[in-house]
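Entry:
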Amino acid sequence: MDHDTTEPVTGTYPDEPRLAVLTTAEAHKTIELLQLLEQLDPAGRGPAAGQLAADLARRLPTP
């Protein structure tokens, strides 16, 4: 099936509020786990996990 990517996507969206992808508690736990991964794998994907943790932490509201 071919898709025309020149036309904008249209649709209807519900009016009720959407749930967050992660709760604040889940986001904090995710950051902890990413930081652990950074420590366990410093030569592989660890630095990327640490950067992702830092990016996510900057987006969270401060308590």
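The mean pLDDT is 84.
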